[in-house]
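Hey forum,

I'm writing up a methods section and want to include a predicted complex as supplementary material. The small molecule is nicotinamide-adenine-dinucleotide. I've pasted the protein sequence and the SMILES. Can someone with a working setup run it? I'll credit the forum in the acknowledgements.
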Amino acid sequence: MSYLESLFSLKDQVAVVIGGTGVLCGELAHGLAGAGAHVVVAGRSEERGLARVEAITAQGGKASFAAVDAMSKASIQQLCDEQFAEHGRVHMLINGAGVNSPTPYFDIEEEEFERILRSNLMGTHFACQSFGKAMIAAGGGSILNIGSVTSFLPLSKVFTYAASKAAVLNLTKNVAREFATQGVRVNCLCPGFFPAEQNRKILSPERTADIMRHTPMKRFGEPSELIGATLLLLSAKAGSFITGEAIYVDGGFTSMTI
Ligand SMILES: NC(=O)c1ccc[n+]([C@@H]2O[C@H](COP(=O)([O-])OP(=O)(O)OC[C@H]3O[C@@H](n4cnc5c(N)ncnc54)[C@H](O)[C@@H]3O)[C@@H](O)[C@H]2O)c1
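Reply by user p_vandermeer:
Happy to help. Structure tokens for the complex are below, copy them as they are.
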């Protein structure tokens, strides 16, 4: 095994990617499979999940699909139980199911606020609880929650989403501290702006111009540019002393004032 492989190889490990049906986490699923893991693509859309599994296996990777609704504690517990039963162990988990909305502040209904918090924040919490407990019992593991640049500071137009992602980072640090001596690391990947399904309706030409003005690298990210930080944070060897950390992959967005 080469030096780099010994640091980053995920061979013989199992990773569950909740939201692996989507654009960014689908790409992360490819990255983990490329590093040798068996990837369980988990999400609500079987059609998109199976398409992702097919794409991964076509490239020689190992993957399977599992249905889950991140808004349901019971559904996440079932996913956890089934995957531990099937594979004996789950070494890595990505919590990436996320929804967004551009509703103006005074128009946000209680139902919408609750729905976004439930999928982005509570889903992450449900999975940290169930998978965290099972990983501790199995001898260790690594969890990667998906935050955002708005985990760090408020972002206009997406009030509920911003509140949920700030809370995801706070929860990440708190759970990381809680699990720190029990073999489970918990970190947060905070992407900048990557055109995808959940933000397409928000990326108007005016919004895009605002984002570019505030992004030192003056471009959107490519989903594959998230893989390096993901491998670092999830790898038991390369990331062994990293917990409670957030890595912003944002072309400099969070380093910018004027
Ligand atoms: N695209 C960006 O610029 C960006 C930036 C920062 C953070 N993020 C975060 O990255 C993650 C992935 O987003 P994306 O841009 O790839 O969006 P996406 O819409 O392509 O992917 C999100 C996936 O999550 C799934 N999902 C949503 N709610 C679910 C639920 N309750 N149960 C199961 N699956 C559910 C969706 O079906 C979809 O497949 C999200 O957490 C998002 O908030 C995205």
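Some notes you might quote in the supplement: Residues 19, 21-25, 43-45, 68-71, 96-99, 119, 123, 146, 148, 191, 193-194, 196-199 surround nicotinamide-adenine-dinucleotide (CB under 6 Å). The domain at 10-255 is CATH 3.40.50.720 (Rossmann fold).
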